[in-house]
Amino acid sequence: MNDPLLQVRDLRVSVTGVPGTPIVNGVDLQIGAGEIHALMGPNGSGKSTLANAIAGSPAYTVDGGQVIFKGEDITQLSADKRARLGLFLSFQYPTPIPGVTMVNFLREALKARRGEEVPASDFLQQLRGTLEMLKMDETFARRYVNDGFSGGEKKRAEILQLGVLKPDLAILDETDSGLDVDALRVVAEGINALHTPEMGVLIITHYQRILNYIEPQFVHVLVNGRIVRSGGAELARQIETDGYDPILAEMGAVEEVVS
Predict the structure, then answer these.
(1) Contact 141, 156 (CB under 8 A)
(2) Which CATH number does 6-93+167-258 carry?
(3) Residue 236 to residues 45, 84, 209, 214, Cα–Cα distance (Å)
(4) Which has the closest alpha carbon to 34: 184, 218, 188?
(5) What is the rounded CA–CA span in Å between residue 194 and residue 89?
(6) Cα separation of 159 and 218, whole Å?
(7) Four-CA torsion 27, 28, 31, 36, nearest 10 degrees
(8) Secondary structure of residue 144 in the 3-state scheme
(9) pTM, whole model, 2 decimals?
(10) Which of 10, 14, 214, 216 could cross-link 36 (Cys pair, CB 3.0–4.6 Å)?
C-alpha cells in the first residue's frame, strides 16, 4: 500500500510572535493521491490557519506535530520549498500585482516549480492548452495579475495557475468565497477538468454549495482547531440541512460527561 500524499500528525499551530494563541489544536489528517477531501467548519474554527500552516506561511508557527508530504517531513521547510515539491495553495483573497502580466508570472512560477528554464514554445503550448481546457480567452493571460479583476476572475486566475503548475496537492482555501452561482460553476468545472488520479485536493469551505459541483470522497469538520467529525459526502449534505449546531451540541454533551 502506498503512503498517503499528505500526512498531518497532531499538528498544533499558533500566530507567529503571539505565544499562547493556539488556533490549530492537534489535527490529524491524511490525503492520498487522487483523493478529494473537504474541510468544513464554522467561522473562526481554524480552517485557513491549517491551510496556511501546511503551505508554510511564516505568519503561523508550528508548536508541535508534523507535516509529511510525499514521505518527507516538511514541517520546517519554507513556503517556496514546499511549493517546489508540488504543494499548491489558492488564496481566499488573492493579491493584485500591478505591472506583472499573468503570462510572465506563470512562466516564472513554472520555472521555479521545475527548477529550470522552460522553453518559450513549450510554455506557450502548455498555457494555451490550459486556457482552452478552462474555456478562458488568451487575452486573460496578458492582463496584470489580479489587477482590476472581479472576484470570479481572481478565482479563475488561481485555477489557471493550478492548471499550469500541475501540483501534487492542491489546497483550495474558500475558493467559493464571494462568487455568484454562475462564477462558482465555472470555477468548479475548471477544478474538475484539472483534477487527475495523481493530484490530491483539499477544499476548504464554510458552505456546502461548491460541493454540489465537486463531490469529495471525504469530509472533515473542524471546530476549535480540532477535527471533530469525518465522513463522506453525506456529511456535507447533513451540514447544509442542519447547520453545525447538532455537532456543536454533541461536542458540548461529550465534554460535559467527560468533565
Answers:
(1) no
(2) 3.40.50.300
(3) 16, 32, 9, 12
(4) 218
(5) 15
(6) 22
(7) -50
(8) strand
(9) 0.92
(10) 216
For residues 232 and 29, give the distance between their C-alpha atoms in angstroms, rounded to a whole number: 14
Assign 3-class secondary structure to 50-78. HHHHHHCCCCEEEEEEEEEECCEECCCCC
Q: Which three cell numbers stand for residue 111?
A: 520555472
Q: Domains of the chain: which residue ranges?
A: 6-93+167-258
CA geometry: angle at 192 spanning 166 and 196, to 5°?
Answer: 45
Rounded-to-integer distance, Cα 255 and Cα 259, Å: 6
- At 236, the amino acid letter reads A
Taking only the tens place, the pLDDT of each residue in 144-196 is: 999 999 988 999 999 999 999 999 999 999 888 888 888 889 889 999 999 99
Chain centroid to Cα 7, Å, comes to: 15
pLDDT digits (tens, 9 = 90+) for 107-126: 999 999 999 999 999 999 99
**Phi and psi angles of residue 86, each rounded to the nearest 5 degrees, phi first:** 115, 25
Beta strands in the chain (DSSP E): 6-15, 22-31, 36-40, 60-69, 72-73, 87-90, 97-101, 144-145, 169-173, 200-204, 218-223, 226-231
Supply the DSSP string of 79-99, one letter for each residue.
HHHHHHHTEEEE-SSPPPEEE
